[in-house]
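Internal QA ticket QA-208
Title: Verify multi-chain structure generation after dependency bump
Assignee: T.L.

Test input:
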Amino acid sequence: MNDERRIGRRTFLKSAVISTAGYASASLIADIRQPGLPACEQGTRSPFEQLRKRVGGQMLTYASTPIHQLHGMMTPSDLHFERSHSGTPAISPDSYKLLIHGLVENSLTFTLAELKRFPSCSRITFLECSGNCQDYFKKGPQTTPQELAGQTSQSEWTGVALPTLLRETGLKSKAKWLLAEGGDAALMTRSIPLGKALDDAMICYAQNGEAIRPEQGYPVRLLLPGWEGSSCVKWLRRLEVGDKPWMTREETAKYTEPLLNNTARQFSFVMDARSVITSPVYPAQLEKGWHEIRGLAWSGRGSIKRVEVSVDGGDHWQPATLHGPVLDKAHTRFSLPWHWQGKDTLLLSRVTDSTGYRQPWVKELVAVRGIGSLHYHNNGIIGWRVKSDGCVYYEPVVG
Amino acid sequence: MQPTIPIFCLTLWSLSSQSFSELPQFHLGTPATDQEVAKWNTAIRPDGKGLPPGSGTPPDGHRIYQQRCQYCHGIDGQGGPNDKLVGRVSEDHFPFAEKDAPRKTIGNYWPWATTVFDYIRRTMPYTEPGSLSDNEVYALTAYLLHLNSIIPENFILSATTLPDIVMPARNRFVSDNRLEKQEIR
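Actual output:
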């Protein structure tokens, strides 16, 4: 394997030398090389790797991660999915401040430099839009995982634990909810239960080792591990402590799920467990023989306990290998070797998390919640149809 | 490393003051001035807390709507390139979980009238949020509530009258209960 690769590279370099320098007489066994590019101040992706987010929305307010073109559990920062309600603002780190007020003992503002002076903490966690997979029923066979389920990404986030800041301001005894407000044009707001704020909420200023990207909330965002992306307010400028939720538009008109019993579910923050196969998928063209079925699984309720894969449309399930580290509320990679004999079949994956919750069939969700509720929090099992000619297509599993 | 911070039961959503007060203090941050707080403290709650002085009526709002909103939201809020703002469903039925459900609108889905005021003042018009006066926001809110047959045409919307308006979907919303059991919800 290694040898093959070296020969391939040599042949490549050799032919490059021949064609660029015109050494027509160069011996075929010569291994003449030239120094490569000098060290540079900023690395870029190989020009052979053309990775792109997929931008959408009438106001161009979202972009999805090419999850089927990535490897491992982390998402490169420049490919982290995006969703905003009024575009990405430009906020200067020098004028930035975070205001915390309301039912606190002392209303305080914090500069970015002050936030960085507090004890820091880091954690690897996924962020997912609760609208991920909202076109489950609408998408045709020629749909990639990026188009269907690319509103999820994973980073290492660094910042200060929110309780540390709330300890500075103090909390009045009636405090029960927080309002998180962004400094974008929309001044996006969400009400957050104080319990989450005091559990594992973070005020983040860094992503994957550097300052947060502008699209991810530069200079500061709220991070609520395992909770829907829209609650992790970006460009965070204000936290108001109160005793009741504010009932903002993004927690009433949007990000709520109507149910079949004439009600609508509100404050449905936790992202349920989901798995998605990222290879082989549309637009792959398979040859007979060995393939590795690969994918990602995650749960906002805990860590991944088990992923099972079916290569026969759900008649039999096999345990997939989980690739560590298997972290709490984090994308976890899974794989299963598979020998394809050339027959038409349906590939499926399903996950069970550390709380025992298992990823449902979409028909179970429809039966319990109603099809109209699946605009948000649709974590149903996803299918990939392998045709006998080797073409792979997306297939909603509705039956 | 995970942050070492106290863990609280999520479903209780209550604060265990003891462990919280054991956290160290660092005495960083600057006391916020009243002006700083007042400038940003604009969120409106269902009980009307936060509503500014001022008022407006549906006809006032109609005029502003035609100039500043109609090209995106359509004549009479019927929807243009952007969201439809008007629509009702029958009182005894909330059909949004069903197949081919109607579009969600202020009149059929928004549980609180205060949210309409808060959202317009905060986020609209999309290309120039923050450019409306409080009177204009009252007027536009009144116009949209009137189009949805929630208030009459001569209604004067203000900080006193707005919180008392009962929206058609007021009692439809329930808090998430998925985590109470393992079953699919």
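Spot checks passed. Chain B touches chain A through 72 residues (CB under 8 Å).
Status: verified.
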